[in-house]
Design brief:
Helices cover 52% and strands 12% of the residues.
Length: 205
């Protein structure tokens, strides 16, 4: 038999199915056509389902809109398109390479599933592939910006890139090496966009 227990208002209901698994359901407002918007949960244990419902309610009450299907590559592109109006065209264009590195390695992950350990692994992979310390730092900085925007738009509750480890191991790898130099392209950009005054010429030097 199917056993069901109605929980208090706002907590949904949980039932044990004939298969032995537990199923929960929760009403979360109404759809655009006026029907009840039902959200469903399932698990091997009743406690697992109750925890899923509690987590969902907590996120909802915190105004976090968890898009279950949104992957990082899609959100990163949205962020990149929006970023265009905030910076010089040369800066915007220069971000393409860094964005491609991020989406190549992390793009298939759902935004809601991204964890600090994924960011750590990504940075370690770049180090193993002998990317420069400067480029690795750019990737980390861009990830922070992308996920800050996700947090600001209530897609995630916390930014996993900010919780990832610092670049200690990467710093150690370059501790005894020479400092990174600007690339020729970066030097050209400095020459083109820095003002011709004391500050601009000091930076060029």
């Amino acid at each position: 038999a199917i056993m069901a227990k109605k929980r208090s208002s706002g907590e949904g209901s949980v039932r044990k199915m004939r298969s032995g698994r537990w199923r929960g359901e929760l009403m979360d407002g109404y759809t655009s056509d006026g029907k009840k918007n039902m959200v469903y949960f399932s698990g091997d244990k009743k406690g697992d389902v109750l925890e899923q419902i509690r987590n969902y309610v907590n996120l909802r009450d915190a105004n976090v809109r968890v898009n279950q299907l949104l992957v990082l590559s899609e959100w990163a592109q949205n962020w990149y398109d929006d970023y265009k109006s905030q910076v010089q065209p040369s800066t915007y264009s220069g971000y393409k390479y860094t964005l491609k590195l991020i989406t190549t390695h992390l793009g298939s992950l759902k935004v809601k599933d991204l964890l600090p350990i994924h960011v750590n692994s990504f940075l370690d992979t770049l180090s193993d592939l002998d990317y420069s310390r400067s480029q690795i730092q750019k990737c980390r900085a861009m990830l922070i910006q992308i996920l800050d925007a996700a947090e600001s738009n209530n897609l995630i509750s916390r930014n996993p890139a900010r919780m990832a480890k610092q670049l200690r191991n990467i710093d150690e790898d370059w501790e005894d090496s020479t400092k990174d130099a600007f690339t020729e392209e970066e030097i050209n950009l400095l020459d083109e966009y820095l003002p011709n005054d004391l500050l601009g010429n000091s930076i060029r030097l």
